[in-house]
TrEMBL record:
Pfam family, one: Beta_elim_lyase
Designated name of the protein: L-threonine aldolase
Gene Ontology annotations of biological process type: glycine biosynthetic process; L-threonine catabolic process
Annotated GO CC locations: cytosol
Family recorded in the similarity comment: Belongs to the threonine aldolase family.
Length: 340
């Protein structure tokens, strides 16, 4: 049995998703004439109660566009030290927007309103870069799928209002948080200026991210997407997969979360495990007890039994559950972990 728990991006389109893609009505989206893309954008804008949405090939491009919309060169954004926008987008914040990042030492990728406020450079102190944007990530990737408390986000919004800062959400896995905490997407739409939502993570589409926001900012998003090379033609075939995922795969996330919790429990019972981060959604981060097993031996053992996971460095091991991780695979992996 082959099991891939490296990421929730490894999924194949489901049968229904393939059908939706095959049957999609398409047009030239650079002319904004692809009916399926237009439908997806309207669907997401409505879902979050925001004015406008725009379809992007990747989450990185959607986040980078948001940063560009909120900032001018030389300015600074505030994010957690583990943020995807800082660590995993190839230095895009400086490359594309000429902005620096003030890194906050958060808890599992989550920062507080107090920390945000302390991170703002005084606007009249012209020696420092002007702070103009706060980027949050929910769920956190490197933080092990941890979710923000909505009350803390409300406080961060107040700080942003007081200091005239934009607030962007890297919501690559926002639907996981929404399902886990039983929120209404509109609660997030009311608090952020822009939100990116990946369709190719837990939702299972082969590609695509939607950036949603209010029209004052979003009116320039299509120009920035063009500059970044993200204008696509008959891309409704891919958008159809995303639309299908939003309409049909949300319940699946609950099953992913349940399996992740079960893997957490299983790992916690093993003597060769030093600790497991508390699982909130579909990501499990754990550390090995080096007195019992080395990183290499552990990974080799999994590899020899056809189970792939991610080594995040600094002793962090990561598994991510997803819709191609079947019940049979789940039994197989737990049995394997219990017999090392
Ligand atoms: C996956 C991911 C993205 C987007 O990544 P792409 O590979 O560019 O689609 C952004 N933020 C987080 C937290 C992610 O996990």
């Amino acid at each position: 049995m082959q099991v891939d728990l490296r990421s929730d991006t490894v999924t194949q389109p489901t049968e229904g998703m393939m059908q939706a893609m095959m049957n999609a009505e398409v047009g030239d989206d650079v002319y904004k004439e692809d009916p399926t893309v237009n439908q997806l954008e309207a669907y997401v804008a409505h879902l979050f109660g925001m004015d406008e949405a725009l379809y992007f090939p990747t989450g990185s491009m959607a986040n980078q566009t948001a940063i560009k919309l909120h900032t001018l060169p030389g300015e600074q954004l505030i994010c957690d030290k583990w943020a995807h926008v800082y660590n995993y987008e190839g230095g895009g914040a400086s490359f594309n927007s000429g902005v620096s990042c003030k890194l906050i030492d958060g808890d599992r990728g989550i920062i507080t309103a107090k920390q945000v406020e302390a991170g703002i450079n005084a606007p009249d102190f012209y020696h420092s870069p002007l702070t103009s944007l706060v980027c949050l990530e929910n769920t956190t990737n490197k933080g092990g799928g941890a979710c923000y408390d909505l009350e803390e986000i409300k406080k961060i919004r107040e700080v942003c209002n007081q200091h005239n800062l934009g607030l962007h959400l890297d919501g690559a896995r926002l639907m996981n948080a929404i399902v886990a905490q039983q929120h209404d997407p509109k609660e997030f739409g009311a608090l952020f200026d822009t939100i990116s939502i990946c369709l190719s993570k837990g939702l299972g589409a082969p590609m695509g991210t939607v950036l949603v926001g209010n029209s004052s900012l979003m009116k320039n998003a299509i120009r920035v997407r063009k500059v970044l090379g993200g204008g696509m033609r008959q891309v409704g075939f891919a958008a159809a997969a995303g639309l299908y995922a939003l309409e049909n795969h949300l319940d699946q996330l609950k099953a992913d979360h349940k399996k992740a919790k079960e893997l957490e429990n299983c790992l916690n019972e093993q003597s060769y495990i030093a600790s497991v981060e508390a699982v909130e959604t579909n990501i499990i981060i754990f550390y090995l007890n080096s007195n019992k097993i080395s990183e290499q031996d552990f990974l080799n053992h999994l590899d020899q039994n056809s189970v792939r996971i991610s080594n995040m460095g600094e002793g962090k091991m990561r598994m991510v559950t997803h819709l191609d991780y079947t019940n049979a695979q789940h039994d197989y992996v737990r049995h394997l972990l219990e017999n090392i």
